[in-house]
Design goal:
Helices cover 37% and strands 14% of the residues. It is built from 11 helices and 9 strands. The chain has a 9-stranded mixed β-sheet with strand order 6-5-4-3-2-1-7-8-9, sandwiched between helices. The radius of gyration is 19 Å and the shape is globular. By secondary structure, it is of the alpha/beta class. It starts with a helix and ends with a helix. Strand 4, helix 5 and strand 5 form a beta-alpha-beta unit.
């Protein structure tokens, strides 16, 4: 168990994160001209091969550190609030700690999504020293199967290490939906996360195109029980997930390409992990005009989208600046558009 001194240090760090987060929220409401969240990929290669995942390979080399620095600095220049490092498996990047430090040096909140397999006590302490602020692990089942090896049985010791050593916030995400054989496992995983002092969330697995598939009766029951474990999360505020669970479309304004950016290992900006190819512009050439155009561009995939991170950032702008089909979208600022429609 963590010592009293460790607990006090963690509380101080959590308070500091909350203050920074509050400032980011205030800035997001005041200004629409900057990204709120960017996912950046330093490594497409993964040490696992979950059958539902379309975001990995088994051969790619890590993006060179200097190139990662240039991309992070560009995100800083665009005023990005949060950068989450994803993959592939980002812990396979040999200079990941330096990447995290560069994010923090730009005044950006630093997050990491990992499968957790490579976490040991020393690696967690290195992440502490690098300045990581939050980490998420998705655990798909209690026991590994042919669909996913991200199981509680394999990862529970890793979770115990995080509880003992991590100074950053830890969230454990469990899943229901297509390809998950035992949806009740999500409850076991969620309760274990809370027991260890972490937050717990639940996601609904999308199909290969990032689109929703309605949950069955048992899956919906598990989903609603899991919501009771979520002390606070956007999934309980914006109701996106509730509609997804019922197989219903969502009527919303997707701000991908503007408030949310997905930067692949080749340095291209995409709408999200499931819509790679659009707009497909190199990050180094991405401008305020690109942000403004995509802010106002309606995305045809939005009604049946299950990509929760895009939902979460778009909620900040759900009340302003209606979107139009891509061919009709003017390159003007969202503020100018808001004035025009008034």
């Amino acid at each position: 168990m963590p010592s009293t001194l460790t607990k006090l240090r963690r509380k101080a760090k959590a308070a500091y994160r909350n203050v920074r987060g509050a400032k980011m929220v205030a800035r997001a409401i005041a200004s629409t001209d900057h990204p709120l969240l960017a996912h950046i990929i330093p490594m497409r290669r993964c040490n696992l091969a979950c059958t539902y995942c379309n975001e990995f390979d088994d051969f790619s080399k890590p993006v060179p550190l200097e190139e990662m620095y240039r991309r992070i600095d560009k995100l800083g220049a665009l005023g990005t609030s949060v950068v989450t490092i994803s993959g592939g498996e980002p812990l396979m990047h040999p200079e990941l700690d330096d990447v995290i430090r560069r994010i923090r040096a730009n005044g950006i909140i630093a997050g990491l999504i990992t499968n957790g397999y490579l976490l040991v006590a020393d690696r967690i302490e290195r992440l502490n020293r690098a300045g990581l602020e939050w980490l998420q692990i998705s655990i798909d089942n209690v026991n590994p199967d042919d669909v996913s090896k991200k199981s509680l049985k394999v990862l529970d010791k890793k979770l115990q290490l995080l509880a003992e050593y991590a100074d950053f916030h830890v969230n454990i995400n469990s899943v229901v939906g297509s390809g998950i054989s035992h949806p009740q496992d999500a409850l076991v995983i969620g309760k274990r996360a809370v027991e260890l002092g972490f937050t717990s969330t639940i996601g609904i697995i999308h199909d290969g195109g990032g689109q929703l598939q309605p949950l069955g009766d048992e899956e919906r029951r598990i989903y609603h029980e899991m919501q009771a474990l979520e002390k606070s999360s956007f999934t309980r505020i914006n109701k996106f997930q509730d509609n997804i669970a019922k197989g219903l479309p969502n009527d919303w304004r997707c701000r991908a390409g503007a408030r949310y950016l997905y930067i692949c290992e080749n340095g291209l900006v995409h709408y999200c992990s499931q819509q790679r190819g659009y707009p497909g512009i190199p990050l180094e050439k991405y401008t305020r005009e690109d942000l403004r155009r995509e802010y106002l561009t309606e995305k045809g995939c939005a009604p049946h989208c299950t990509v929760s991170c895009v939902h979460q950032v778009s909620i900040f702008d759900s009340w302003r600046a209606p979107q139009t089909p891509a061919s009709d979208t003017p390159v003007s600022s969202p503020a100018e558009e808001l004035v025009r429609i008034k």
